[in-house]
Amino acid sequence: MKQPPTLMVPLRNRSQWFEYYYHREGSDGIFVPGDLDFGVGETLYVDLNFLEEQRSFRIRGAVTWRRVRSGRPALKPGIGVEFDASERATRDKVLEFAAGRAVDFTLRTTHRIPVTLQLSYRSDSQFLRDVADDVSAGGLFITSERLLDVGTIINLKLKPPRYLLGVKVKGVVAWLSRRKTRHGMGIRFLFENERSRRQIEKLVERLKASIIRDMRIRVPRPEAG
Fold first, then answer.
1. Contact 110, 137 (CB under 8 A)
2. Whole domain around residue 184: which residue ranges?
3. One domain, residues 140 and 164
């Protein structure tokens, strides 16, 4: 059975959730801004990433409406994702968390940051240039049509903005994704020393801070109807 695609949604903090969330009679969901290639009726998973709190939730839903780009700047393009009825418990947990109440979590060892990051990497057999679409202090996901075998050791050079020389780190291919909407490789970092680990942790914190700064514009609520 084909796995639904995953859409990562970065949220600056708890309060920004209420700028995206909408509730209508008999249903609720989230508005995700952007020129997104999802059709009405398509099922997907939404990864909600609360950046300041470093918490994530995954919730299943379906695209119920689209808003295309128009000449009205106040109306941002995007999609409305209605949560599946079976996800009520997760939805309630997100609402509790966003309201500032205590919520039990299954903790991740590292927190993913949704970011597009240029990189190059070398294995024993080839040299490649691709992009990462998320990164954490423990690893990243490389978006690529060219997949290496699980267990392949690679030497990475990350090229974040304002890093003139880039950041070098070793990694191993930990898992593969062959889904049409997310084709690539999950990479786990292999730190050769504590200095290398601290360098990556510092990079991730800078990327997170940059995303938060870029998210100061409020997202308007979709119109009813």
1. yes
2. 113-212
3. yes
**Residue 127, CB-side half-sphere exposure with 13 Å CA sphere:** 2
Give the span between the Cα atoms of 95 and 14, in whole angstroms.
9
Helix (H) or strand (E) holding 17: helix 17-20
What is the rounded average pLDDT for all residues in the chain?
82
Residues 126 and 151 in one domain: yes
Measured in whole angstroms, how far is the alpha carbon of residue 68 from the centre of its chain?
22
Neighbouring-strand partners of residue 182: 179
Residue 140 lies in a domain: yes
- Split into its structural domains, the chain has a count of 2
pLDDT digits (tens, 9 = 90+) for 157-207: 998 877 878 899 999 999 888 766 568 898 999 999 999 999 999 988 888
- Hey, what are 105's tokens? 């979590």
Beta bridge partners of 79: 32, 66
Residue 82 pLDDT level (bands cut at 50, 70, 90): very high
The confidence band for 111, taking pLDDT boundaries of 50, 70 and 90, is low
Do both 79 and 15 map to the same domain? yes
| Secondary structure (3-state) at 92 | helix
Q: Exposure of 140 by Cβ count < 10 A (0-12 exposed, 13-18 middle, 19+ buried)? A: buried
- Global pTM reads 0.55
Rg (CA), the chain: 19
